[in-house]
Amino acid sequence: MSDVSTSRRSWLPRSMASRLYLIIFAGLMLAQGLSFALLYMERMQSATAVMFNTLEHDVGTSVAVIDRLPAAERSRWLNRLERDNYFYILGPGEPGKHLATDRSAYVVSLIAKEVGPDFHVYGNTIAMSPEQYQVHFTLHDGSPLTLQVTPRMKPVASWLPFVFILQVILLLICTWLAVRLATRPLSTLAKAADAMTPTADGPRVSQEGPTEVARAAKAFNTMQDRIARHLKERLHILAAISHDLQTPITRMRLRVEALDASPEQQRIIDDLHELEHLVREGVAYARSAHGGSESPVRLDLSAFVESLVFDYQDMGQPVTMSESVAATTTVRAQALRRVLANLIDNAIKYGGAAEVQVQRVAPDVLTVTVSDRGPGIPEGELEQVLQPFYRLESSRNRDTGGAGLGLAIAAQLISSIGGELRLANREGGGLQAIITLP
């Protein structure tokens, strides 16, 4: 059923602005075209009625004038009696066929009725594209007279098509303005939602404009404040739990350490250490949503990363800087240092060594890549390992798999400072952790 509905909508544009533009413009053009067609038909009928009502009287008068003129003077009057749709010929005219259309037969019958039977009126068609027919008269002196008719209706003025084109252009402009005014608040709201952070320092949507837009903007700002308040409450709750747990855990460890040494005692001490580690990591994850109270600063990213690499090298760790470009950016320095340290530690732990790169992938986009030659991560789990408490190992041994919060903390910290963390398997084996910064 979903495939059928999708195919039915496949012809529609994807964006709401394009759909609104198409619907409004098509509706207005249909209405404008219908109005123009009705106007054309009405003018055509009016012009035809006027022509039929005046043609026979005009022709009757003209034939009577020509009939009364001396034969030598008739040719001088022909130009005076000529009209847009017909003119007179002194002579028998051209041979032709019987009248081909009902309209031509009707016109000839009207003329014949107007001038009377003395002129022996008859008609014939001499062409059809465009239609041309002749009406033949025999004057009282026996001279032939021919009226050649070329029906041409001009129900609209010659300048009207240009007015129609201007109206279409005006419709385009008005439709564009209407769609822009209708969809711009949605675009602004979408951009604000994309840039929204877990804290209350995200972009605020202007509450000016129409009532519906103002209400939506106010609801969005209120939602952002509510999310920030809930996260702060979560942080306070976790901090309180950590504080309350630290004291009994410490008392338990002291009591266990006072017991006689035994394998059971050591296992209990190890469990207490792991419990303390879980509590600290849980609080760290909650704090990472806010990026701490640190203020963003503008720094030389290449020099910042190099100093961190040198610190590891001073400690004898296998960390190298393979590529670096001169670039500055505005970030929370301590949060970024913690993320990079986490990623480098993981690379050393699982790959034996870490390789760091600073690259510019776009004029305003920088990346910091931490690579290793470890076992990598299955493709289907590259995104899942960034979730809290997700571990590739089934055990909860801190020495092998940890608490499952390290990468989640790193991803959340990077998100809080406006960046993005993603993982990718490396060609030839290994893992790449790529930090993208604006």
Automatic annotation (TrEMBL):
User: Which topology term describes how it sits in the membrane?
Assistant: Multi-pass membrane protein
Q: Hey, what's the signal peptide range on this chain?
A: none
Q: Which InterPro entries match?
A: 2C_sensor_his_kinase (IPR050980), HAMP_dom (IPR003660), HATPase_C_sf (IPR036890), HATPase_dom (IPR003594), His_kinase_dom (IPR005467), HisK_dim/P_dom (IPR003661), HisK_dim/P_sf (IPR036097), Sig_transdc_His_kin-like_C (IPR004358)
Q: Where are the transmembrane segments?
A: 20-41, 159-179
For this protein, the Enzyme Commission number is 2.7.13.3
Question: What does it catalyze?
Answer: ATP + protein L-histidine = ADP + protein N-phospho-L-histidine
Q: Which residues form the HAMP domain?
A: 180-232
Q: What is this protein called?
A: histidine kinase
Species lineage: Bacteria, Pseudomonadati, Pseudomonadota, Gammaproteobacteria, Lysobacterales
